[in-house]
Amino acid sequence: MTIMPVIVMIFIFVPTIVLMVSMPYLTRETISFGVTISAVQFHSEPLRQMRKSYARISATLHTILFIGGIICLIYSDEHSKQQSWIIVTYSLAMVVISLVINISYHFKMKSLLPVLPIAPESSIMAVDTDIRKRNIGLSSNWFLVHVLIIVVSIVTVLRNYDLIPDQIPIHFNSSWNADRYAAKSYSSVFMPTIMQVFITLLFIFENWSIRRVKQQVQPTDPNRSLRQDVTFRRAWSCFTITASFLIVILFSVVQLNMISLFNINFAIPIILIIIAFIILYALSLSFWAGQGGSRLERSADRSNVRPVHDDDKWLLGMIYFNRKDPNLIVEKRFGVGWGLNFGHPVIWLILLGIIVLLAVVTRLGG
After folding, report:
1. Are 256 and 156 in contact (CB under 8 A)?
2. What stretches of 27-142 show up as alpha helix (H) in DSSP?
3. Backbone angles phi, psi at 50, to 5 degrees
4. Which of 120, 140, 219, 294 could form a disulfide with 126 if both were Cys (CB 3.0 to 4.6 A apart)?
5. 121-155 as b/e, with b when 16 or more CB fall inside 10 Å?
6. DSSP character for 144?
7. DSSP states along 262-282
8. Residues 323, 328, 332, CA angle at the centre, nearest 5°?
9. CA 271/CA 252 separation, integer angstroms
């Protein structure tokens, strides 16, 4: 076998494991394993030990699984589909392990809550009425650069369509040798273009959501929490535009490789570098800012007031379902970033559209 699949697996999955293990340390100080608490409770000894226990168990299980995946790759047949199945199976196992740990610690947290230092319920909810006026994200006009790249790629392919071979390589083994082909057609040639458009629209929606997702203002220190939130949103808006730009470039590289404008030995390293950069960028941003900017401008003054909460709207502390909430996107309680409000009917229409699009793309690609 070649060492490349192992290198790829390290670049992609090690940062993901680090994020999973560190999850309890990246959340807000008012959320612990999907349960709303006070800052004093968050820093209490029982929850300190609970976070350490989570990190230790998560690191152990994911390390064992990762080593097993690496060993399977080393002894796999590079000329068959074994390596692809190993990576897919490993990814699914990693998700299952993470879910099981998160759910178990969520219930553990709920059982532990009554014995923590008393936190009186707050009857005050702070709201920033000027949130729409604040400069909390980059303009979506930046996506016009994506459109320009897509148009240039389309024009280039159309002008060089006759140079594209009758059989287009669509899969490569670990030695970068093509082992699967698709017949030349406009649908197969412009498959990367379809993905570029889909990715661009998806990230435009994400950038739009960053500006409009409901804000969490701490009543005990509203000015600091507002600064944290604005910095957090700006940083992730910048990431959204940068990551989507690089992904559009990635698919252009794939497309230009079809007409031999890029040699495969040159194209593959570019693709791997782009993927590694996006993952490391997200990892660095998560540790720098934390969820909602909670790791920015930290204060030694901790409140024993438990914020107004909607814990009953969060299934297992992870899935938000609230039909009365007009927001499509909400802050995650596990991890960093935003999740979906599954109680909003528009979300289900969007998910249905994505499923249909993926089905069409898969059929065209086959």
Report:
1. yes
2. 39-42, 45-74, 82-112
3. -65, -40
4. 219
5. ebeeebebeebeeeebbbebebbeebeebbeebee
6. H
7. S-HHHHHHHHHHHHHHHHHHH
8. 100
9. 10
In the block, residue with structure tokens 């993901």: 16
Q: Residue 144 pLDDT more than 90?
A: yes
Instruction: Return the bridge partners of 338, or none.
Output: 331
Residue 169, SS3 per DSSP: strand
Report phi then psi at 172, rounded to 5.
Answer: -125, 145
Q: What tens digit of pLDDT does each residue of 62-72 get?
A: 999 999 999 88
Alpha-carbon 348 to chain mean position: 19
Read off the pTM: 0.82
CB atoms within 10 A of CB 4: 17
137 by DSSP, 3-state: which?
coil
Q: How far apart are CA 292 and CA 28, in angstroms?
A: 7
Rounded to whole angstroms, the Cα distance separating 99 from 316 reads 10
The DSSP-derived string for 172-218 is E-TTS-EEEEEE--HHHHTHHHHHHHHHHHHHHHHHHHHHHSPP-B-
163: which residues sit within 8 A by CB, 6+ positions away?
259, 260
First to last CA, the chain: 27
Q: How far is CA 44 from CA 33, 116, 301, 331, 334, in A?
A: 14, 8, 14, 24, 20
Q: Are the C-beta atoms of residues 161 and 189 closer than 8 Å to each other?
A: yes
Are 292 and 230 contacting, i.e. CB atoms less than 8 angstroms apart? no
pLDDT tens digit string along 340-360? 899 988 888 888 888 887 777
Q: What is the largest CA-CA distance in the chain?
A: 74
Length of the chain: 366
CA separation, residue 236 to residues 156, 225, 302, 328 (Å): 32, 16, 27, 18
